[in-house]
Amino acid sequence: MKEYKIKTYEEAIQVIEEVGLLPLAPLVLDFPALNTITTPESWHSDTEYDPWIWRTRFSVDGVAGYGKFMKKKSILISRDFLPYFKAVIGHNESVEDRYQKGHVSREALNLYRIISEEGVIDTRELRTRAGLRDKEHKKVFDNGLLELQGSMDIVISGIKEKINAEGDKNGWSSTSFETYDSWASRNKIETLAVEKEKARNYLLNHFHAVASENSVKKLKKILGE
Known about the structure:
3-stranded antiparallel β-sheet; alpha+beta; 225 residues
């Protein structure tokens, strides 16, 4: 597989568009990840070369979908391949319908309803609205978000800076969430009426062209045999 070493946000976009799938940290052996194609010292440098800053910028700019879509890992998926991943990982039925069939937890349904209603909402506000601010509810909250990201019902759409009374940045920023449908619509990403197996084959054909045989075997398992 081609070796990548990059320094700039623009170079990262090129890799995402070329490979189609870029996890933040290694997901598959011999497959690029954002932290393996950049230098360790660039991370958290708070400069234009900081991949930690880029990760949400990809989503804000509509370059790539961002979320914990697979294996509970943070993943970037290019806008061209996103509809195909959605067809494979996502569901034809709504969150509400899947909840009625017992396939979605009550917590995930509640979070999805709030995110849908708000459009874009940051983590702090979402926890408050969901009544899950207490420490003992953190795991329930986190699991609900993982469930919705794992089915690509929601995406990370950006971050919200924590600002003090004087208007200055103060403390850790907070991740913002949006439904996949809302984010895709805003960024003019089409919805594909394609069968799951056809979408899966399309993705695997692509990965055969850009990745090693071992990587493709792992991706096959992740995408479902």
